[in-house]
Design brief:
UDP-N-acetylmuramoyl-L-alanine:D-glutamate ligase, 9-stranded mixed sheet, ATP-binding, pyridoxal kinase activity, nucleotide-binding, EC 2.7.1.35, alpha/beta, two-stranded antiparallel ribbon, 11 strands, 281 residues
């Protein structure tokens, strides 16, 4: 069985980060191992949440793995809360990467034109350096603009602008770029992937849902990583991840009293499993 190590915080309640990565990756028939960076009582959309930082535990955990000669087929990093945690990811990639091990970095820092609370342009620059160690990076438009140090363009951009953007992101040092949240109208939302080795750009647009939810970016990145480890091409992995997020949002909206704090991805898991057939490979 293939094995992924995913590095993110974990919320005891609230569907994001490790709380969704672990069940989604497991459902895809891939062993999900975790390196939690912090424990929260709920995710940050709730008020008054508790937070316990686990940065000081990371080196001891990874040292034990080295002692046990544990290996991974993919390293997948999500939300990292400090410069120190970014620095620790270099050691993780050095010690457990290489060979055929995939390295996927989701630079979770912001959305809708702004960085999350506590993050700065200097942090975005540090994240951009970490992306140079990745095979695949998965930013949204906000994260892309901050990592490149350019103004955020919310709408009105052209296809040529987006193509130039993904090429500039690849110049950070990564091989493959998956850019989320691209839209040219009110009806469709798109994913753009770029492979710098083949110089191939793929576009995939799906239905734009009437409401957004916390954690969908984490779900997308988790499915993408699982699909890559399962052997899907980057384009097919993007399509599967986007389709699963749409199915999860539809499942959520079908409930009259749906939770505001996360999507009902659990109800959409049968869809995900059904799509993991030989026809996708």
């Amino acid at each position: 069985m293939k094995r992924i190590i995913t590095v993110q915080d974990i919320s005891c309640v609230g569907k994001c980060s490790l709380t969704v990565a672990l069940p989604v990756i497991s459902a895809m028939g891939v062993e999900a191992c975790v390196l939690p960076t912090a424990v929260l009582s709920t995710h940050t959309a709730f008020k008054g949440f508790t937070f316990h930082d686990l940065t000081s535990d990371i080196s001891a955990i990874t040292s034990h793995w080295k002692q046990e000669k544990i290996s991974f087929d993919a390293i997948y990093t999500g939300y990292l809360g400090s410069f120190e945690q970014i620095d620790l990811m270099y050691d993780l990639i050095k010690d457990f990467g290489g060979g055929s091990t995939h390295v996927i970095v989701d630079p979770c820092m912001g959305d809708n034109g702004s960085l999350y609370s506590g993050f700065t342009q200097d942090f975005a620059a540090a994240m951009a350096k970490l992306c140079s160690k990745a095979e695949v990076i998965v930013p949204n438009l906000t994260e892309a603009s901050y990592m490149l140090g350019i103004p955020y363009v919310e709408n009105g951009y052209t296809k040529e602008y987006i193509e130039d953007l993904v090429k500039k992101l690849a110049e950070l040092g990564t091989r493959k770029v998956v850019l989320k949240g691209v839209s040219f109208d009110d009806k469709k939302l798109g994913i753009v992937s770029y492979d710098s080795e083949t110089e191939k750009i793929n576009w995939y647009f799906h239905e734009k849902m009437p409401q957004s939810f916390h954690g969908t970016g984490d779900i997308f990145a988790s499915v993408l990583t699982g699909a890559i480890v399962r052997g899907l091409s980057l384009d097919k992995a993007c399509r599967l991840a986007a389709d699963f997020v749409v199915e999860a949002i539809k499942a959520t909206l079908s409930h009259k009293d749906y939770n505001w704090y996360g999507v009902d991805f659990e109800s959409a898991i049968p869809f995900l499993i059904s799509q993991l057939s030989d026809s996708w490979l």
